[in-house]
Design brief:
Among the domains are: about 110 residues, Beta-Lactamase, CATH 3.30.450; about 60 residues; about 140 residues, Reverse transcriptase/Diguanylate cyclase domain (Alpha-Beta Plaits). Helix content is about 50%, strand content about 20%. The chain starts with a helix and ends in a 7-residue tail after the last helix. A hairpin with a 6-residue loop joins strand 1 and strand 2. The chain contains 15 helices and 17 strands. Strands 1, 2, 3, 4, 5 and 6 form a six-stranded antiparallel beta sheet that branches. The longest helix has about 70 residues. With about 550 residues, the chain is an alpha+beta fold. It holds the Pfam family dCache_1. It is a multi-pass membrane protein. GO terms for molecular function: catalytic activity. This is Diguanylate cyclase.
Length: about 550
């Protein structure tokens, strides 16, 4: 039962009706995809431009607000350091009252103000007053060292307070005497969560799941964030977020990137120049392009409804239109599957079905003709692949194959075989003087003469322009190989007659015997080649033509 169902499904899958239905569905699908792609690309571009512009405006506004608040604090420090009475450095009570007045007038530093000696080991005064351990020391703090080395207010690395672990940032400026020497450092600390400082970053979100990040490239630190868990955490390493890497290098603008958590975001980056920080306003693209996704869902749903309607119409209509083709298709399927003998289809009438059957019958005849021609061509190609086109002898490829076979047989049976390497002496002058056509005929005559000397078990091959090789396998001895070489020389002793010309030739033959002259093909060929050249050097020159 199951086999029958599978066969029916397989037959239906080959049906013209099914294919036309699938074609119709494909058109609907392609149309839907095209609409989704075109509209989505268009809307995404528009929404991206609009959202990017809005994100950039928001980021620039918040960054400007932060920058102004930092400037106000730095200006306060600059004015206070310039007006601090140096005599009060020796009167902690008077200095604390002075700090209190400034803090009451402009309470910008939520954690208070502090004056420290230049060695960093002694707090002269602070307001509000805090109880610190006797070994309190700020000499190694970055803001302290930076303030001593600068004549402008500086911003330290945001960190957690050693007293209550609250995130804060310290700003400081050196207090100098009339000679410009630092006599103290005035610092103010602000909690990152204090009202009126970074509240726009920490207290706001963009959309449902977006938000802000305030980054210090110098410290590679998230100074503040809408997600409070990211405050004072390290920025991701290079390579995790390409847009973040560009921002760390100085880029300010918008872009789409994938954050360290793997979420794709639309981000806008604005500078906070006074602190050397930058602000990122980010919104997941899934939320930014939510309208586009809704449109895609609508188009996909609409296309499915159209496809269902198209399938119904096609199924009912095509079965009626193509019923005459069913029998012809069934017969062709049976022949293709081998259930019936391959034979011409009957032609009952010359309509579309008759033309199809007649075309099949014509194709069947052509296929049989081509099959016969292909078999003949394969035979010719096999011969050409292993034989020299000029002489008809085996070529270099077949020679190497037979040589390896001879080595393998000798290794198994222990019998000797010999390799004769032959070069024609005097062939080049024939080619140069009488032309290549006569040279080709000389090579054919040489091939016939040498072939006539050999047994069926031997092989002669043309392996180069005027080079031949012979493999002697059956009952071979070194003396027997030399005898065959002498016969070859004798066969070429008589000049070759071509177009009334007597063309003298001689042979230089090198002999190698397996295994005494080499145990692999390369060693045998090298030995025979060297022996041949030794003969050539000692041979008598062929008379000039």
């Amino acid at each position: 039962m199951l086999v029958a169902v599978v066969d029916e499904l397989r037959r239906q899958s080959r049906s013209v009706i099914v294919r036309l239905m699938l074609f119709g569905l494909a058109l609907v699908f392609v149309g839907a995809c095209a609409r989704i792609w075109v509209l989505s690309s268009f809307l995404e571009g528009k929404i991206n431009n609009l959202a990017s512009s809005q994100q950039q405006s928001t980021a620039s506004y918040v960054a400007h607000d932060i920058d102004e608040k930092i400037k106000a604090r730095l200006d306060l420090l600059r004015r206070a350091a310039g007006s601090l009475p140096l005599a009060a450095l020796d009167d902690p009570t008077a200095l604390r009252d002075w700090l209190k007045r400034h803090q009451d007038i402009a309470p910008l530093f939520s954690r208070g103000l502090m004056v420290v000696r230049p060695d960093g080991h002694e707090v002269v005064a602070d307001y509000p007053e805090r109880h610190r351990s006797p070994d309190f020391d700020v000499s190694s703090r970055d803001w302290f060292q930076a303030a001593l080395n600068s004549r402008e207010p500086v911003i330290g690395r945001p960190a957690r307070s050693s007293l209550d672990d609250e995130p804060m940032v310290v700003m400081a400026m050196a207090v100098t005497d009339a000679a410009g020497r630092p006599v103290a450092v005035l610092s103010g600390a602000t909690a990152l969560s204090s009202p009126g400082f970074l509240n726009l970053v920490q207290g706001n979100r963009i959309g449902r799941s977006g938000g802000f990040l305030l980054v210090s490239p110098r410290d590679r630190l998230f100074v503040s964030a809408s997600d409070h868990g990211m405050i004072l955490t390290a920025t991701p390493p290079e390579g995790v977020n390409p847009l973040h890497d560009r921002a760390m290098a100085g880029y300010r603008g918008t872009g789409v990137t994938v954050n360290a958590a793997g979420v794709e975001e639309l981000s806008a980056i604005a500078a906070v120049p006074t602190a050397g920080w930058f602000l990122v306003a980010r919104l997941p693209t899934a939320e930014a392009f939510e309208g586009v996704r809704d449109l895609q869902t609508f188009i996909a749903t609409n296309s499915l409804m159209i496809a269902a309607f198209a399938v119904t119409v096609l199924f009912i209509g095509m079965r009626r239109f193509f019923r005459p083709l069913t029998e012809a298709a069934r017969r062709m399927h049976q022949m293709a599957d081998g259930h019936v003998e391959l034979a011409p289809l009957p032609v009952h009438r010359m309509d579309e079905v008759g033309e199809l059957a007649q075309g099949f019958n014509y194709l069947l005849g052509k296929l049989r003709e081509q099959e016969a021609a292909l078999r003949a061509s394969e035979a010719r190609m096999a011969h050409m692949a292993h034989h020299d086109a000029l002489t008809g002898l085996p070529n270099r490829a077949m020679f190497h194959d037979r040589l390896q076979q001879a080595i393998d047989r000798s290794e198994r049976g222990g019998a000797l075989f010999a390799l004769l390497y032959i070069d024609l002496d005097g062939f080049k002058p024939i080619n140069d003087t009488h032309g290549h056509s006569r040279g080709d005929e000389v090579l054919r005559v040489v091939a016939r003469r040498l072939s006539g000397l050999l047994r069926k078990s031997d092989l002669i091959a043309r392996i180069g322009g005027d080079e031949f090789a012979i493999i002697l396998e059956v009952e071979v001895t070194p003396a027997g190989a030399e005898t065959v070489a002498d016969k070859c020389r004798t066969a070429l002793a008589e000049p070759i007659l071509i177009d009334g010309l007597r063309l003298p030739l001689a042979l230089s033959i090198g002999v190698a015997v397996y295994p005494q002259d080499g145990r692999d093909a390369q060693q045998l060929i090298v030995h025979a080649d060297q022996a041949m050249y030794a003969v050539k050097r000692g041979a008598v020159r062929v008379p000039a033509l």
